[in-house]
Amino acid sequence: MARLIITTAMVLVWSGFALGQSRLHPEDIPSPEAANAFKSYWKAFEAYEEKMTREANRKHRQSVSALHQRFKDKSNRLTADQIRILERAAEKYRGHLRSHVDATNRPFVMLNYAQIQNLIGDHQVELGKTEGSFAKTEAIAMLQEIEKTYPDFIHIEETMYLHAIILESLDRGDEARNIWLDLSKRSGQTIYGVHARLALGDYFFNLDQADKALRYYRSALVAMSNVSVANKEFEELRLHYRVAWAAYRSAEINQVVTSGKKLLQPGVNLGSAVEYSNITTDAIELIGNALFENNDYNFTMKTLEDRSLNRYGAAIAYQTLNRYSANEIHSEVLKVGPKVLKKFPLAKELPEIVQIVAQSYDVSGR
Question: What is the mean pLDDT of residues 313-342?
Answer without folding.
Answer: 94
